Amino acid sequence: MRILYLELRRVLRTPVTLKLLITAFIISGIIAYLPISYVHYSYMDSNHKAITVSGIKAIQEKKRLVLQGKLTESKIHTAVNEYQKVTKKYGSIYRGDFPQKVYEEKVFLFINILDRINEVYGSEMKTGRGSYTDKISAHYAAEHFYKRGSYIDKISADYAAKNFYKKCTEHLKKQTSDKNKNIKQQAFNMYKKVNMPFEFIYGYGSSDAADYLLFLIFILIIICTIITAPIFSSEYQTGSDNILRCTKHGRVRFAITKIISAILISSISFSICISTYIVIEDSIFGWDSLETSLQMVSSAVSLPSLSVGEAQMLTVAAGMLSLFAVVSFTLFISSYCKSTTVSLVISIIFCFLPSLISKSVDNNIMNWIRLILPAGGVGVGNGFDYELQNLTFLKFGSHFIWSPYVIIGAAAIAIPLFMTLTVLAYCKHEAA
């Protein structure tokens, strides 16, 4: 314990480490503010003047107005019926000249329900974040923009209400129509466990808070990587490791102590920053909003039977696991390299590599490489939360594995593997 205490004090007293930890906490507060500040709500006051509010006030207004609770047949029937009445009289709700007052009173309270109905009954393309825009041309988007919602115009309220959940299953069939039969079977087995009717409460899931959580996790992992990279290599540069090895516990035990200190500093810092973010977001958006079904805020055919709150906790847990994997990998690189600069550059490159792969190539082999890397569960524009909502299955022989399972499994293997390799590399360096 004495050695561990001294090592922790040595690392924490480093000026760069202190600055990075303070920066991490400040960034957490800034990122927590962003999704709240981006919430806007416009309405007409008693003098018919357009008023726009943002932040906490906008969130409170939306929570007051939006229809919440279980997505029952009666709510679906009412939403479709009201929508059709309004569009018949005023035209598309997405036109710039649509009456603001009418939108507030007749449309806004149903908007989340209408989005799910439109997806289930009308989408002919795969769902998931970004998939619509990936598959349509700019010309098509411009030509059909104001026709959005036309699927709801073509169905009766009775039909929409009675068949919604049946159509969800049919929608999933359409999304998996070009996939292997084993993938289809796994997808349907998972989807059978989804709780129906769906639950919706305006709040965390209705904002960009989940995306910013992923971004914060990635930033924290980068910061912890910078802190961890010099743990071994800095002592190689100064030669102080030769002195330490002359002590009674200056070899294997000392290497293990360094690993433990790096893990402790990283995990405690991560926990404090993520807890700060979550408490701020959930307190302002409402803790009750965490009960919302994942299917109501992403895609109606999201496979896991999870609430928004459960998805949030899983994302944080996967983020912590990815943190341990990245820190373990960085320690291995540090124990192998004699230069802190080389150690840092290699570690940072591997942090960004999964994001670069996801943006450039999409096939089974590259998906395997992307997801089994230490930072496979985090990134810019990709990450565990995105994989939870997608229909990505990776082929392994005759089997197909859902991508979130690959992320968790790979990280669980990487942690002890790279820790062991770190100790071995340190001992090998001793022999050299």
Task: Please provide a written account of the structure.
The structure is a single chain. It contains 20 helices and 6 strands. With 432 residues, it is mainly alpha-helical. The strands form 3 sheets. The protein has a two-stranded antiparallel ribbon. Strands 3-4 form a two-stranded antiparallel sheet. About 6% of the residues have low confidence.
Question: What would a concise description of this structure say?
Answer:
The protein is mainly α. It folds into two domains: 2-37 and 204-431, no CATH class; 72-197, no CATH class. Helix content is 67%, strand content 5%.
Uncertain stretches of 5 or more adjacent residues:
124-136, 138-149
Binned strand content = 5-15%
Outline the biggest β-sheet: 2 strands, antiparallel
Given helix and strand content, the structural type is mainly alpha
What is the rounded distance between the termini? 29 Å
Q: Which strands sit side by side, in order, in the main sheet? A: 1-2
Supply Rg.
25 Å
Record field, number of beta strands: 6
Number of domains: 2
Shape: elongated
Number of helices: 20
The SSE string, one letter per element, is HHEEHEHHHHHHHHEHHHHHHHHEEH
Overall mean pLDDT score?
87
As a percent range, the share of helical residues equals 55-70%
